[in-house]
Amino acid sequence: MRGLKHLVWTFTRAYDKKFAYSLGDGRPLPDELTTDEAKMFIKKVADFGVENFFICGAEATGDPMIRKDFMEIIKYTSEYNLAPYVKTNGWKLDEHIVKELASCNCKMIISIAGLKETDDFLRGEGAYEQSIKGAKLCAKEGILFSLSVVNTKYVVNQIRNLVKLALDIGSKGFSLASLIPQPICVEEQLQKLGPLEPSPEEHEKELNEIYALSKEVGKNFKLLPYDIFYTRILRQNEPSLKLTGGCSLYHNLKGNEWLEVLDNGKAYGCSTLGLMFGDVREDSLGEIMDRIRNSDIVKKLADMNNIKGKCSICEFNTICGGCRAKAYVYTGDMFNHDPLCAYKPKGKGSR
Ligand code: SF4
């Protein structure tokens, strides 16, 4: 089976400025893919076929543009017409770079941490302006870009204004980026990020507001929280909608849907759970995806009979099922119910 829908590549975990939610020490991994290895990986991506190829820094904090060979790698992707999505804080964007990115058919995801005051509080003074300036340069050059907001308790009451901001600066979409889960030390995530996360009730409020806003903004603007609970929100509001939600990892059992490749080339079905299925230095994407499809642990996770707590009896579990990685980070058990879900199941057959 050839071709993959989504491939998310953490190009580097290095960062040059520590935010309130930064994890790790900001240094690159000693075994990060070299420029030549990165090019070899890109060739594998092109040979296999990837519909949506994301080049990112470490979750929330990072910026792939920090690597000196960033533009060399981007130009290499254009030799294979990969048209990647680049997720960045936008600080390194200037007119020249934006023109180059446009000529390589890149699409951008510009990350901020909230409205100005919140952003400056979480990322440091001037962070917001720099990101918005970068976003506006993308708009000027005709690069398709989307605004991604790091979801903390500070943005819960800012959703409407953030969506307005996205529209005002020419963004074609808006999404929320979860702080947890991340593919790094569980204790550090809980200690540092746990207190910043919205409560389950606050998160439910955000998702309902996003649903309401999606009806106002029109179809040309992509308003998606990329959140496992959102399919349930859609179904609750529009029971007749045909939906296939749930964890992308499980969809790999039927087709090639989702793969994460970390900066050291290790390939994961879910990096937070440590579900590693190969190494792009040695393996083809086909071999890696075959291993996921035949994995006993993925099959076990996808079977809702194995899931505990309220997710096991929830009438929405076939389109949701909760995030196993969040269950693992918060409870130490990947088979547990999702502790961040505010929904109280009515039980199967109640819809
Ligand atoms: S209880 Fe579990 S399956 Fe039901 S909506 Fe919440 S997370 Fe999803």
Characterization of this structure:
This protein is an alpha/beta fold and 351 residues long. The chain has one domain (4-301): Aldolase class I (TIM Barrel). Helix content is 37%, strand content 15%. The chain has 14 helices and ten strands. The protein has a ten-stranded mixed beta sheet. Helix 1 (35-48) links the parallel strand 1 and strand 2. The radius of gyration is 20 Å and the shape is globular. The model has no long low-confidence stretch (mean pLDDT 95). The protein binds iron/sulfur cluster. Iron/sulfur cluster (SF4) binds at residues 229, 232, 310-311, 314, 316-317, 320-322, 337-338, 341, 343, 345. The site of iron/sulfur cluster has 15 residues, from helix 13.
Outline of the structure:
The protein is of the alpha/beta class and 351 residues long.
List the helices and strands and how they pair.
Blueprint: E1 4-10, H1 35-48, E2 50-56, H2 70-79, E3 85-88, H3 95-103, E4 107-112, H4 116-123, H5 127-140, E5 145-151, H6 159-168, E6 173-178, H7 186-193, H8 200-217, E7 222-223, H9 230-237, H10 248-251, E8 258-261, E9 266-270, E10 275-279, H11 285-293, H12 296-302, H13 310-313, H14 324-331
Helix pairs in contact: 1-2, 2-3
Q: Count the domains.
A: 1
Rg (CA only): 20 Å
Cofactors, ions and other ligands in the entry: iron/sulfur cluster
* CATH topology term: TIM Barrel
Largest sheet: 10 strands, mixed
The top-level CATH class is Alpha Beta
Backbone shape: globular
- Share in β-strands: 15-25%
Helix percentage range: 25-40%
CATH superfamily: Aldolase class I
Strand order of the largest sheet: 7-6-5-4-3-2-1-8-9-10
Using the 3D structure, state the CATH architecture. Answer: Alpha-Beta Barrel
Task: Provide mean pLDDT, rounded.
Answer: 95
- Distance between termini? 36 Å
Find the structural class using helix and strand composition: alpha/beta
